[in-house]
């Protein structure tokens, strides 16, 4: 009875290939269709939020700058509406090539801090305020 019903459906339940592939061919095909770590566009975490609401704000900020972002969180926290604790935590992920740009947007002062980390203190005029023996 079920065979009669499935014969009328447009290729939904039929095998896609008539011939049997070798295990090596199947492995190559599955590796090219999944994101098992071999892709340059693999998502990376750029922000760990305390809850999904905070992650939504960060995601919106990144998307307003043209960076696609996704939120990863525990399903239990979402189901029970948790807003605090480990189950409420969420991570914001972006494609790996855009991670540096995303971090610059989220942490704009870090670039300036890195420039000032040379060990010399300067005043507003740019003059060295640290003496040679200090």
Question: How is this structure best described in words?
Answer:
Helices cover 39% and strands 13% of the residues. It has a three-stranded antiparallel sheet. It starts with a helix and ends in an 18-residue tail after the last helix. It is α+β, with helices and mostly antiparallel strands and 134 residues long. It is globular, with a radius of gyration of 26 Å. The chain has a domain at 47-109.
Which helices and strands appear, and what pairs or packs with what?
Layout: H1 2-7, H2 23-33, E1 43-49, H3 52-64, E2 70-73, H4 75-80, E3 90-95, H5 99-106, H6 109-116
Tell me the radius of gyration.
26 Å
The main sheet comes to: 3 strands, antiparallel
Q: Ends: how far apart?
A: 91 Å
Helix content class: 25-40%
DSSP, total strands? 3
Order of helices and strands: HHEHEHEHH
Q: How would the global form be characterised?
A: globular
Unreliable runs, pLDDT <50, ≥5 residues? 12-18, 25-34
Side-by-side strand order of the widest sheet: 1-3-2
Structural class: alpha+beta
**Mean pLDDT across every amino acid position:** 73
- The fraction of residues assigned to DSSP E strands is 5-15%
Number of helices: 6
Q: How would you sum up this structure in a few lines?
A:
This protein is an alpha+beta fold and 134 residues long. 39% of the residues lie in helices and 13% in strands. It is built from 6 helices and 3 strands; from the N terminus they run H-H-E-H-E-H-E-H-H.
